[in-house]
Amino acid sequence: RLLDPLMESSSDPRQPYKLAYVGTLWNLTSVEPIVRAVRLLAEQSPDLASRLELHFVERRMAEQDEWLDQLESLPCRVVRQPYLDHDAALRLMQSVDGLCLLLSDLPEAGRVVPAKLFEYLAVRRPIFAVVPSGEVSSILQDCPFAFVHSPNDVTGLAQRLGDEIERHRLGVSLPSGMWDSSRFERSRQAEQLAEVLNCVSADGPGRANSSNCTDGPTRLTRSASEGVWTKTDGIERSPSLALRVSLPRLFPKLKHSHALADGQPSRADDSTSDASDIRNQSVAPVRPECLTYEKT
Question: What is the pTM of this model?
Fold first, then answer.
């Protein structure tokens, strides 16, 4: 059972601030920005750094362990744990003071939405999202307990770490407001997919030349002429592509990234993977409430 949605500190303020990353560390989720930020924090505020405890759970590529080795000489504590089953991973997420989400600044990485993001949101712990501009930053832009930094913003990330450690030491709660994450639940996402399918299928051959679906948050526009679906930004997309983009987010167990939850590596989790492997990861859904499609 998940914790009640309160943003109170999860541990005694006299204890270290526990920040955890749960998942595989490889070139798409490099720990380099965190290491650099902690090193900077240790240079500027060694007392704050000594109050930090970092947990890294799951598999790590060799070069990622080399980055973590650089933390061993710093006053913070580093805990490396092997694979945990899903229930144990959730309990860990609930027990720590902050959670880390990593995406490297690689081509197309902005399209990737790690499945763990939604578990992080559910446990309502502060989220350090070190990600390039894209879908994750868009999802978290109005979340009051998410801190979004680009992978290159080492100075800002170090400052944010120090601020959070100090807030924890003082026992100050982080206000969460009335932010509602229910729109990301599978039932709601499935409802949105059903609305898209209903709109697309409602305008078949022999029907009216054009139709608009405005029921609920969905708005799709089609004309009678033949051609491909085109988003209003001019990027051509076919209906099948729209569904391929949507389905992984609605049914993520079909994707490679979710195989990790069962202890099976993704074929993209390889230290020699290049940017093209990003297409094998979970990608963001088409959000019909903010997009209009036209058939040209």
Answer: 0.67
